[in-house]
Amino acid sequence: MDGKMSWSVGDAVDYKGFPADRTKTGGWVPAALILVIEIAERLSTMGIAVNLVTYLGGTLHLPSAESANVVSDFMGTSFLLCLLGGFLADSFLGRYLTIVIFAVIQALGTGMLSVVTRLPQLRPPPCNSSTTAKCQEADVFQMGILYLSLYLIALGTGGLKSSVSGFGTDQFDEKDEKEKSQMANFFHRFFFFISTGTLLAVTVLVYIQDEVGRSWAYGICCLSMLISIVVFLSGTRRYRYKRSTGSPIVHILQVVVAAVRKRKLQCPWPWDVAFLYEDSPEASRIQHTDQFRFLDKAAIMADGDNHQVHGGTSTDPNPWKLCSVTRIEEVKMMIRLLPVWATTIMFWTIYAQIITFSVEQATTMERSIGSFQIPAGSLTVFLVGAILITLAIYDRMIMPVLKRWKGKQGFTNLQKIGIGLTLSVIGMVAAALAEVKRLSVARRVGAAAASRGGTTLPVSVFTLIPQFFLVGAGEGFVYTGQLDFFITRSPKGMKTMSTGLFLTTLSLGFFVSSLLVSIVNSLTGGKHGNGWLADNINNGRLDCFYGLLAVLGAVNLGAFLLCAARTKPQTPQAGLQMESTGKSSSIDENNV
């Protein structure tokens, strides 16, 4: 048996379903093949998102606010669908099949988008600069075909993001010290590849879209995804596969349903907790807590809790009627994440403005460096650059200083989130000030001269750099802080679920952005093409909108600080069911 365990990985199998041989499966080569999929996904999603607003306004002639909402809804749906992808992977398909299926869907979506942007029948006629006011918007059919391609891409993105990182970590055995160290380095490379894909998207791909043609750029996205699928499939024999333990969403629903069914029963707390049902091994049990006592009723043993079978009653409890204390405590741990979860949504609402309205601002400004003109969508390179610079400074300077000064490894996850939220508020203040300057120039030279199809304003696009850099630096702190918080504060069996919960903050942030734009557009007269978010932003008051976001962000920061102050540190008892907190923090703070 000892000899067998030396070459096999206990909780993993190979592609034939036999115990995985660690000498033939897993490790860096299979993990690298998986990362290729991540590069192609980032290239496609971000290459479309950061420059889509210029296509919607310049080619399809949509109003400014509507263009921003289309992009926000597309990105929000992409992240929301991560929950669907995670559910399918955990319950039915497994991570390998989930990646293959959704990668094909994304390739189909990008290929369709390439055709949509190529055919003149699928866009309105060009706008005559002498009759700008009479530009014809895209009709219902044209927008419907565009939406179909975009949301196929969103579906593919959601499925991929839910499984790629998890399947990558499956290639390393946490019980082996060497492979556990390699897993930490995998997170380094995972984030590096995310950034690489994003950088290629906001530079090379955006340039191709503007200077060569969008259909060519989206065709490259489709081709890269198809190549990545072939590369991914080539590693099938070398991958390690983990058996599914069921969907955490189903486990949560079982606790809620069981508690509701037994809502009229008297719970024996706190003096008779021993009478509550518990079937988990002693080493993996979570200590009972008095919070959210209603859920404890799911562990009260009663008649009819076992499965009914022909000829009698099964000894196995029905999980929809009776749940263990440990399963209930796992759900309680997830509920305790919700206050911090709710107060981080606002950051991504602010982030949505950077890849929509800020890009639209850039289209009206002077973007030339000598004979080269910077594509408006490429301004987001400062967003990505700020993230990388922030993480490098944090890793190489801040962490060593804090370790020598206070003996800490770095900021806590809640401190990092707080810093990121603060930077986003300052970023919106900087954005408002930059817009005040841009509007003053527009009024001086005449807004009509810089309307759609006209000349650019004599103000440098680099005026926008502070808002890109501040929000980008904020993302570096918020993203890593959130991921660290949700992973280290969640039970071991719900790590995938907690990551999905984190990604829903991005999704809801984009949806809140879309809702906020619609409300502001309606209240300030946007229906008539005027107001803060006018169809021609030179006639609007985007500075007031940025100011509103700064105020909302400041209020949200105050709410976060209150929630953070009430959030209790992780206790050793709860840690029984969790992976090493020190290990998780090390991975997430330095590598994501």
UniProtKB/TrEMBL annotation:
GO biological process, one term: oligopeptide transport
Region of interest (Disordered), residue spans: 573-592
UniProt subcellular location: Membrane
Transmembrane segment boundaries: 70-89, 96-120, 140-160, 190-209, 215-233, 337-354, 374-394, 414-434, 461-480, 501-525, 545-565
GO-annotated molecular function: transmembrane transporter activity
Membrane protein topology class: Multi-pass membrane protein
InterPro entries: MFS_trans_sf, POT_fam, PTR2_symporter_CS
Protein name stated in the entry: Protein NRT1/ PTR FAMILY 6.2
The species this protein was found in: Elaeis guineensis var. tenera (Oil palm)
